[in-house]
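Can anyone check this?
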Amino acid sequence: MAMQGVPVIDMQKVDGLGEELVKACEEWGCFRMVNHGIPVELMAEMKVVTASLFDLPEEVKRRTVDIGPGNGYVPRNAISSFYEGFSIDRISSTNKFCDRLDVSTHQREIIYRYIKAIRDLAGHLGRKLMEGSGLAGDLFDGWWCQLRMNKYHYCAESVGLAGAGLHCDPSFLTILQDDEHVNGLQVVDKLSGEFTPVDYVPGTLVVNVGDIGKIWSNGRYYNVKHRIWCFEPKTRYSIALFVFGPTHKKIEAPSEFVDLKHPRLYVPIDADEYRLFRYANEMRTGDAVDLFRTNSS
């Protein structure tokens, strides 16, 4: 039996916001945020900058190619002929990314403002998730994040195909600015296994839980499977912040999540090593998590 639909959560809610966020992470692994605090003007400006970066000559874009999987510039290729991407692999290295592309002063300012705003929002989310779990502290303090800009070159031949195939994210969570003109995000309903559309709502952002979120929550959070489907031959852009993990510390469930009824499910994991393991073994749909289960589970 399918659930009613992906939750829409008001981030300005005073009472019970933390509990509502935790519930959405557990039941859907996905939700939309309204009143999230990032100006719609800044979101629009960042989309314009994103489109302009993809319009750069191929030889310029390739200056940001990285040998690491899922890093830097990802050109269209035989495996993913509709998809093209840019990544600022550590948002602390934004200056280097901008230098390589010779972006203008205005573009650089927009990128920096956007990254600060969405990183601050991630911090707010982390604190509220802790609060909703009865814990104290700043969950994402000192964690490394990646900003990824995506372009889907949809055409008549791509209609009815996936621009991005079924996958779970390797992050704790992802904050997504989706396209206001071209829908396509679909998540897998936890109960029914059916695809549920996550249609665009003006001025909002989407959050989805990834593998690291499931590990940290001791299996409570749902690392939601999702895909990007092509319904019409229009170019689609999206911008995602991936919140991965601590820079010099492994991820494990807090002791408060572990007791006799809920034994520790996963061994401590380095978020970056886990991400590389997934890529190396081509395990994109959440199954890699099970390989890091403890002997007691």
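Reply from J.R.: I decoded it. The longest strand covers residues 236-246.
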